[in-house]
Design brief:
The protein contains 5 helices and no strands. It has 101 residues and is an all-alpha fold. One of its GO terms (molecular function) is DNA-binding transcription factor activity, RNA polymerase II-specific.
Length: 101
């Protein structure tokens, strides 16, 4: 996420609101591949929105020079944690991984 925010700044973007994440973007694809390697799980409807908001938070922090502070990402994680969905019950099943195969 940090890499993409820095890239946007280096490309001359001025405001976080100019950042948009499409469902076919590289960032979306990379994150889905990382967390959903075999595409066994349907991507939640608000995933793209959360990715976009996270990218914007990183952008704002870097643009504001917060990345010079030691624990600068903590405030970002607090903001994006509010966007989390509850964990679906089927993830809590002891047989969850077997159900995917």
């Amino acid at each position: 996420m940090e890499k993409y925010a820095r890239q946007a700044i280096s490309e001359g973007l001025k405001t976080a609101d100019d950042l948009h994440v499409a469902g076919d973007s590289e960032l979306y694809r990379v994150l889905n591949l990382h967390y959903n390697r075999n595409n066994h799980i349907e991507v939640p409807p608000n995933f793209r929105y959360v990715v976009e908001q996270t990218l914007r938070e990183f952008f704002r922090a870097i643009q504001g020079g917060k990345d010079a502070e030691q624990s600068w990402k903590k405030s970002i994680y607090k903001v994006i944690s509010r966007l989390d969905d509850p964990v679906p019950e089927y993830f809590k099943s002891p047989n969850f991984l077997e159900q995917l195969e």
